[in-house]
Amino acid sequence: MRVYCAATQTAAAQALGEGELGPAPVTGFAVTAALRSWYLDDDAEELEYAAFTEAARGSLRLLDADPLASRRRLVISADVPEEFVTQRPELDRAVVRVSVPVLTQWWACVHIDSANATSAIAAAAAAVIPADLGDTDSQFVVDSALGHELEWYDASELNELLEPSGKLK
Question: What is the pTM of this model?
């Protein structure tokens, strides 16, 4: 099952060193039954994009909690064996929990903001919690940042995108 894991460059660098994103359980986002029933369009790519977008928003929350991380969202797309994935619709329609660490060998690709998005992402990371709590001005800041598309990289390229310090280049 394709699972989109929200991350930061700090978490991704650590995962590369350890060979896994964890510890378990790992919260991710995927095309779930709840997402399918909520989303009007049954197009597979649209559903995947909706789950991916939730992971990108989740990355903003992680950036808010990690002031040392580069102000760039990072989403890891992993193909996780279904027996390790549990849907959690009570948390949100696309949320899943992976019962084991997400092994780097399962990573298909990574998505990272370009360097020119850092100021918008920094503002959105600071605004995401108030936005989650219903603040409309903060939601505008988050929505503006979500307009930046994340760049696609093969999972094998992530190590090349990180400086020796673990920061994104």
Answer: 0.91
